Inverse folding.
């Protein structure tokens, strides 16, 4: 990684300048410029989304550093064994939230904006703002939530983690009932503390993807969402899918890294696939949804690859689908 940092800090006049504007976000989201502007145009303009597309020699250095990191085995593998890690991680956010007097910014997940390089449209770019990914995530969530969640009375976020998404959901839809679900007790405490602080219809409840609680009641006009949490269950998603089919929510949105959406012939994508598999991230879920659709059990309304991510992979693609009653 030292070679990477030295390369990025060295001067070069070969980089192509770029910026994420409304047109770029429309391309990322698979929609129109007017749609983006109406939902988050002002928000986009409030951030610095300028970046440099790295020239080939620097792209090569980045790819070499990614390969080295993957081969060195520095990354933890996802799965049931990591429950304690997440319990401790979310406890840090809970402690910071309480100590700050309930400052929402303390709920931002620490894994966002960790790297000096981002991936954009299957290329590596160097953002000018160190909060480039976090700012993207802010725009992304406002667009996604504004586009799909307005019609529903109840929003269930599975794998709610730090409660960061619950906070923005409440700001956008203060009248809706929000339930944050996570297997970590510290995450549930965050959701309950957040609901109390905001005096909002927002609460938490424990839920384990690997052993779904079928006693959980999903009322009419409910939408189920996941954001970067299903990635942690690898190929072990059958029971959760069975749970959703059984509960028949009005809508389901999964915003996750879907390995099936990469182009294996693209070098940058190929490294993301290697990283994804090395960490045992979500596998076969999109294929399972397509199989369920072929069996006329669900309808997939939209499957959108979002070609943006951090140094190692893309985590923001999403699938919108419904159970056929």
């Amino acid at each position: 990684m030292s070679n990477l940092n030295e390369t990025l800090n060295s001067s070069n006049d070969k980089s192509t300048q770029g910026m994420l504007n409304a047109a770029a976000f429309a391309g990322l989201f698979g929609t129109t410029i007017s749609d983006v502007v109406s939902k988050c145009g002002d928000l986009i303009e409030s951030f610095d989304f300028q970046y440099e597309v790295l020239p080939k020699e620097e792209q090569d250095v980045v790819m070499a550093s990614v390969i080295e990191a993957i081969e060195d085995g520095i990354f933890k593998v996802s799965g049931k064994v990591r429950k304690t890690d997440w319990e401790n991680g979310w406890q840090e956010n809970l402690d910071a939230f309480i100590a700050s007097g309930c400052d929402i910014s303390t709920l931002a997940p620490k894994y966002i904006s960790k790297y000096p390089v981002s991936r954009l449209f299957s290329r590596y770019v160097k953002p000018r703002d160190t909060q480039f990914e976090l700012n993207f995530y802010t725009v992304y969530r406002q667009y996604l939530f504004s586009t799909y969640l307005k019609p529903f009375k109840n929003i269930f976020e599975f794998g709610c983690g730090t409660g960061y998404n619950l906070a923005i959901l409440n700001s956008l839809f203060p009248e809706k009932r929000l339930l944050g679900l996570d297997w970590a007790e510290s995450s549930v405490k965050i959701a309950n503390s957040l609901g109390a602080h905001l005096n909002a219809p927002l609460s938490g409840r424990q839920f384990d993807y690997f052993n779904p609680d079928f006693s959980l009641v999903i009322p009419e006009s409910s939408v189920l969402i996941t954001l970067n949490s299903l990635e942690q269950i690898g190929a072990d998603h059958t029971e959760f899918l069975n749970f959703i089919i059984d509960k028949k929510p009005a809508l389901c949105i999964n915003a996750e890294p879907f390995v099936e959406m990469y182009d294996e012939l693209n070098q940058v994508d190929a490294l993301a696939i290697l990283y994804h598999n090395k960490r045992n991230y979500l596998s076969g879920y999109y294929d399972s949804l397509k199989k369920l659709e072929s069996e006329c059990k669900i309808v997939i309304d939209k499957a959108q690859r979002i070609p943006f991510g951090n140094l190692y992979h893309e985590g923001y693609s999403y699938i919108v689908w419904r159970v056929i009653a």
User: Anything to note?
Assistant: The first strand starts at residue 16 and ends at 19. DSSP finds eleven helices and twelve strands in the chain.
